[in-house]
Amino acid sequence: MAWPGLRLPKLPTRDALLTQAWSRPFARYLGAPVLWRWNRRGVARGLALGLFVGIMIPLVQSPFAALLSVIARANLPVAVVATFITNPFTTPLVLYSAYRLGSLVIVAERANPLVDMSQPMAWLETALNWLATASLPTALGLLTMATITSVAGYFAVQLGWRWRVGRRWARRAQARRNTALAAGQGVSA
Asked: Which Pfam families would you find in this protein's record (predicted)?
């Protein structure tokens, strides 16, 4: 079902991408047909990889997703587009949620140290100490969130694809029955 007035940007085709100067050294790998096929397994792998990379890696997500999709033989466009689950608007929420989730798993010290401004560089030491205590829960939370979302995305594509194909088969079977029924009624009348 398409929404009226919705115009999606056109993604480059495989051939257009491979003719770019920057992609010529990688054309052998990026040109593999399995990376561009729209099938259940490839799309599910691409979504899972894109979600995992999108949450785990804060910068330069698309090249990492493309590299992993080549290695895992996943759908490359889906992997790259799925990395945009995190963007400048959602990243603070993702990082805060990851910190809270990681703090549930690891009991982190929650005391906020007071900054001693009489020392020339005390604020820097306090900030680095806070960063060191917050980084482990955040990293663990990011890993947990990335794993859960990628597994959920993988199985959602698998189940959704199977449901859609099953529904199409049921419609075709019903259409064949209706056609056979109509043809049978026309003969006896």
From this structure: DUF2062
